Model the fold of this input.
Amino acid sequence: MFYGELAEDKDEIRIPDVEPPAFLAMLKYIYCDEIDLSADTVLATLYAAKKYIVPHLARACVNFLETSLSAKNACILLSQSCLFEEPDLTQRCWEVIDAQAELALKSEGFCDIDAQTLESILSRETLNAKEIVVFEAALSWAEAECQRREINTTIDNKRKVLGQAVYLIRIPTMGLDDFANGAAQSGVLTLNETNDIFLWYTAAKKPELQFACQPRKGLTPQKCHRFQSCAYRSNQWRYRGRCDSIQFAVDKRVFIAGFGLYGSSCGSAEYTAKIELKRQGVVLGINLSKYFSDGSSNTFPVWFEYPVQIEPDTFYTASVVLDGNELSYFGQEGMTEVQCGKVTFQFQCSSDSTNGTGVQGGQIPELIFYA
Done:
């Protein structure tokens, strides 16, 4: 732009498509070999690095985005990664969106994506979300799109901006209550569509629908089992409000959906379980629920409300406080390292554990996760 045959004949060259902080970050790298990135400037810096063919800086931007990826920003980063033709980042985004679909769909960033990305997400077979959540997210996006187009946010305009994408929402796979109290009363569906979907639920001869009628496959949860055997004794494993806890780390990003727990060794019984997941003392997930055990040595799943994102190479603490009158089974011959598919789990004892659980034995035999 300054020299050679293509030089511009102006004293001042304006670059309207690159933000000043991003341009400064690129200059700093070119002249000082320093990479200075922040969450506010990284996308604009990636754009500048791509435009001016600075591949090492572009790679650093992508690495920064991958490490800061979460359900809150995954949808907007998916949109940007496709624009910048970064397939690895695109794949990381899909992993987060699939596993934490409901959090991603409820995020503010979802409403900022372009129409093409919206259609990609709505057509995704592996979305781990209830269909009513998908429907409500699409309506939120439509409202934001109306505002972007500077048109009134009426029901008709929402349907108009959604266009054919509305048929990617698998409305017939909702529970009847969700449909009757949600989608059917939203006003977005035509009267004929609403009638046909009600007939789809109830009639022996079902009408043809433009909506996809097969449920999404979602994700299949995997289980990391850390004991080689289990046992029971006449005085173990007892619960008096004390905490069973174990620390673990992984070598790849995963999403912990819940724990598998042992149940009663004295016939069928019900337990109340408060499960918790922490990193360096900060609570990332917590849930209180009940589970019924049938007296067998099987494990029984207890779930978090949303899967919790786990980053590699750092230890997390899994804890449970159980309340139940009956003694339970407990694990033995615990392993410090377990290979589950492409993910390696490492276990170590937790100082939070006050009921005897450790690496070698105790409760929390399974971590249930998506990878």
Notes: The domain at 222-370 is CATH 2.60.120.820 (Jelly Rolls). The mean pLDDT is 93.
